[in-house]
Structures are given as C-alpha cells and as structure tokens.
Fold:
Amino acid sequence: MRITDTAIDAVRVAVSSVTDPEYPDLNIQQLGILEDVVADSASIRVDLVPTILGCPALDVIEKDVVAAARALGYDVTVRFCMSPVWTPNRISEDARQILAEEYTVAIRPREGPTKCPLCGCTALQPRSDVGGTACRSVEWCPDCRNPVEIVRSRQMGER
Amino acid sequence: MDEFEEFLDEGGMVEPNDDIPEAYRSAVFRFIEMHANSEYMGGLTERDWIPKAPGLHRKMTALAKTQDEIGHAHLLYMIAADLGVKTREEMITDLLEGRTHFHNVFHYRVHSWTDQIAVAYLVDAAALASQQAVFKNCSYGPYKRILRRVIAEEGFHMRNGEEMLLLMARGSDVQHQMMQESIDRWWLPSIQLFGPDSRPDDELLRWRIKSERNEDLRDRYIQKFVPQLLGGGFTIPDPGLRQDSDDGKWKISEIDWRPLKEIMRNGGPDSSRRISDARRAWYDAEWVRVALNAAAKADA
Structure:
C-alpha cells in the first residue's frame, strides 16, 4: 500500500482524539504525548512521547491509538520516543485550563510561584514529591484548604 | 440547621472556611475517614501482589495501582484531618487498633491470582459505582474535587480488571475453573459493598454527602454484572438468581447480611490478619518517618 499524505493526515486526526486513561476529557494531542505521524516504509508509524518512563498507561494508550487508526482502515505501529523528552511545557493552553478547573491540577510556571488552581494562592505547601501517579506531586493550599496536585517535570533537579 | 439544610437543598456547596454545623462536620468526616481507610487497606492488599504478579507487565500495573490507592488515601486523609475532628496520626492509630472501619471487601483473604482479578473486576467496579454516585451530587467541595481524580483513575483500574478477566474467560479449562472459583468467593462481598438498604431518613442522603440509595446502586450493579459474567461463560453463585419475565431484570436471592455485621465489628474472615499486617507495615516504616521528620527539622 502506498502511503499518501491524505492517509497520514487522516490518521493524525483520528489518533489525536485518543483520550488519556487518567484524564478522560483530555486527549494525547492536548497533553503533548502525540509527537508525530509518519510514513515508515510500508506502514504508518505514530510517535508518542511518554510523560514519564514506566508509565503504566502506555499500554492502554498504544491499544487505543491502534484501534482509532484501524477504525479508519489503517494499520499503524506505535513507537515510544526517548527523545524529545516530555515536559509540562508540552501541555496545551486549553488542557491547562481543564486540568485546573476539572482536576485541581496545576502546572509550574517557568517563572514565579505556582498558583492554587482554585483560589490563586501562591503560598502552596509541599506535602509529597510523588502523588497517586508518578507524574504528579502533592501540595496543600492553606487559603482554600484543598490539596493541589502539580504535574511533575522529569527534568533533573526540578520538582 | 434549617437554614443550612435549605442551602444544601438549593445545591449549595460546603467549603472548609464556611460555618459548618457540627453534625454535618462529623458526618462528612466519618464518611471520608472510612473512604481513606479503605483506600489505604486496598493499597496494602494490592502491594502484596507486586512480587507475585505473573510477568513484568502485571507487576508494573500492580505497582501503579498500589501507588494510586495510597495516593488517594493520602489526599483523603489530608481533607479529613483538615475537618479538625482527628489528626491523621489519630486516624491511622484508630485504624491499626481496629477502632474504625474500612470496606467489607478488604476483610477477606485474596487466595490466588484469579482472586486478585476478581477483586480488580468485581470489587473495583462496585467501589467505582458507589464513588461515582457520591461524586455526582456531593455537597462537600474538597471531597468532590478529590473524587473527580479518584474516579478517573479507578476507571483505568477497572479496564485492567476487565482485560484480565477476559483473558481467563478465553483461557484453558483450568484457568476458567480457577476464575469461576474466585467469582464464587467474591460475588457476595461485592454485592454487600453497597451496604443494606438505606434508611428513609439517612442524613448522608439528606445532606448530599451521598446522592443515591444503597439498594438502587446495588440493583444497577447486578443488572450490569450478571449478564457480563454469564456472557463470559461463568455462573453466578446464587441458586435463587432469576430473570423477571415481565421487565427482564435480574433478581437475586435475599441477602444474608450476617457477614457484613461481623465485619463491622472487625470480625470478618481475614480482618485480624489484615489489621495486624497493616500495623506491621506502619511500624516497620517508622524509621523512615523519624528520619524524614529529623531532616525537615534540620532544614528549617
């Protein structure tokens, strides 16, 4: 089968809407997990960037990606890339808003203190470097008195 | 109190900085404490299976689920302690001394890997159904927010349970038989997780700490899981099970609630071993807490 640009585009659209198993209303495009869809000799390959190595959800994401492409009649292979490295910067603006409003999950800004997604307090208190999932840490908001989870970056030396 | 109930009836949300009537505070605290204890005990059960799980992939899943459950317990203990009724240490001590409660399903022994699958499939689904019902209309803000994430993560566990059950359903006769024996052991505890019928004046319902009656949740669960198990070629351990000819609904035999009553006194089949196991895990890790606290003091 010759792989056309139309086929690649169709697969890209289909797999971008695959949702994350732990955030059912966010897709892998919004979370910056989908890196690229490329022609790989005779087949189509979907490159994914895991948020964290050893993430237990990778298997499910791979299955869902393969199924989404197959629903359009395309067989794809999935490759998990070691490079580039995923960082929270890859999360889209709209996804940040959903994470904050729906899940009380914050992302550290490049500069300045992290804000409580509920009340905007900037004096969050660290509670645990790792939360229920390996990609989140836990802090406490002393103002509105809610736990806040923060998306961890796996860059060395960063929390 | 009338004013507060009116506020709740109109869909009001209660936040930690509000004026909270003591009766509500104490009810929501007890409910969250029980949930936190259950996540914690569930995490310890899951942990037991990390070394025993067949294959690296299953070990990774067991490890991730353990982390999830303990992480949920951590968040829940934070908001429970914030209610000011007990500190986290007091809640843990009460749990380890058998003075408080945790879900009935963690009072039974997990005998085999297929038992573990039955737990992932039947028990996690029952727990998820009851958490979803709490989330839907929950009046306590911090709890509702935590439930949002807990539900998303438990949904992922259930998918894992379904996948493992299907594998056994399609497996060899021996695997199928083992799975059946586990379903036979775990069916009734899963049904009992929803508890006996709700009292008509249940304050948890009136204050929207819960939003659905126990019997409604239980019935919905039965209507979903009976056909699924039968479809997988399994039987349900209930000689009185029948499908109503009028409405097509599945009816089960009258439930014997004696096991649940025993469990509420921490006198279930595996209660004392579970509690002493949790106690050992807690005191074995004492030195870690001591070291971390000393390091935190040195930094300050």
